[in-house]
Amino acid sequence: MHQETSIVAALRQAGLGERVLTDRAQLAAFGSDALTAFHAKAAAIVVVESADEVVATVKVCHRLGVPFVARGSGTSLSGGSLPIEGGVVIALNRLDRVLHVDPEARIAVVQPGVINAHVSRAAAPHGLAYAPDPSSQSVCTIGGNLAFNAGGAHCLKHGMTSNHVLGVDVVLPDGERATLGGMSTEGAGPDWTGMFCGSEGLLGIAVQVTLRLVAVPEATRTSLAVYDSLAAAGDAVAGIVAAGLLPVAMEIMDALAIEAAEASVKPNYPKGAALLIVELEGEREVVADDAERLDALLAASGAGEVRTTEDAAERALIWKGRKSAFSAVGWLSPDYLVRDGVVPRTRLGEALARIDAFSAESGIRVANVFHAGDGNLHPLILFDGREPGGVERAEQLAGRILTMCVELGGSITGEHGIGVEKRQYLSLMFSEDDLALMHDVRRAVDPAELANRGKLLELAP
Known about the structure:
With 461 residues, this protein is of the alpha+beta class. Among the domains are: 2-91, Uridine Diphospho-n-acetylenolpyruvylglucosamine Reductase, domain 2, CATH 3.30.43.10; 98-215, Uridine Diphospho-n-acetylenolpyruvylglucosamine Reductase, domain 3 (2-Layer Sandwich), CATH 3.30.465; 219-326, Alpha-Beta Plaits (2-Layer Sandwich). Helix content is 36%, strand content 20%. It has helices spanning 2-16, 24-29, 51-64, 116-123, 142-148, 155-158, 192-196, 230-242, 255-264, 284-300, 312-323, 325-328, 348-362, 390-407, 426-429, 432-445; strands at residues 20-21, 44-47, 68-71, 88-91, 98-102, 107-110, 128-129, 165-171, 177-181, 205-212, 214-215, 219-227, 249-254, 274-282, 306-309, 335-338, 341-342, 366-371, 376-377, 379-383. The strands form five sheets. Strands 15-12-14-13-18-20-16 form a seven-stranded antiparallel sheet, sandwiched between helices. Helix 1 (2-16) runs antiparallel to helix 3 (51-64). The chain is globular, with a radius of gyration of 22 Å. The chain starts with a helix and ends in a 16-residue tail after the last helix. The relative contact order is 0.12. The mean pLDDT is 93.
């Protein structure tokens, strides 16, 4: 309690005044992120309004040895923005300005609290857009996207956040300012920007980010194909890629996910055991040629009903249904866990069949909705936390799925990160030497391990 009193007093003396929040209700509002299975109580929330205030807050924390975590909208699904018990939460939501859009250089300079979708909105008058599009893009922030190297439905063609970040101005864990990268895609020397992107807040806090923009495509065509099994839909994805066709997005939803979306936003999807969404974009003639090839591939893959559209409103409703799937399963179950594993595309069908078997064996329903193009699975494990042992059984099933992903040659995360949720699974992928190197890099930047302590990596022994 003495340390909590000391840190609060020091923050207020640093000029942060009434924006240092300590009331019980205020702390409770920041007590968890989107992974609500975990809760923690911070000593204080600091609502910063400038990069200088981020520096001041971090310097106070460094001087007193108090851990801190930066937070935007709190949409992390791995506990990445969970408060550190007795630490400080630095709320970046008021750093929400798009500072500059340069249409000739195709870049946007933004603050970390800018909502993902707002970057494309600012770039739209110039015929440009920001490509990474997580399902939570209407609320998630660029700072969080950067910390977890977010992807989204269209990352198959455009890549992850790291492929679109050119430079970052950061506040290091001791309060020092540093500039990583710049405004060019042609970097020189070590790729510090690439290392910072996806580091889950362990290396500092971004206060300004330079993003690469892409041209809005001349034509876009979206297809829906229905299959009688998840495995068949997964095999269709592998077949499309093997044929040399590169859609901008390929997504799969199973019957439970379709049911949830229909109950929520009513996208009027065709009924079936699995739905494959495939989107093509580019020059009009190229899209037309690719569409012919895609139609033939879908027919050969055993698809049932196939719908296609180039209408913007119809396409928006299709994607609204897909991107609302996580929240929509709340219509089907009082509680759910979201897992984020990756398998090779060639083994998608096998992975989905095994998840189905795991679900049957455990008696726990699993709704599957995922980025099929890059094998990024998002199984939604439906359970009732009020039932004795319900949470534990759901966690066991989640663990089996992640273990399977690694066994098939994949990863325990694609874009949601490790956070506090998956630290125990790191050893499935990395050797002791690998993990030791990660700790060494982290301690070289943050010897006291104050920045987002306890996330991604366990505290050093």
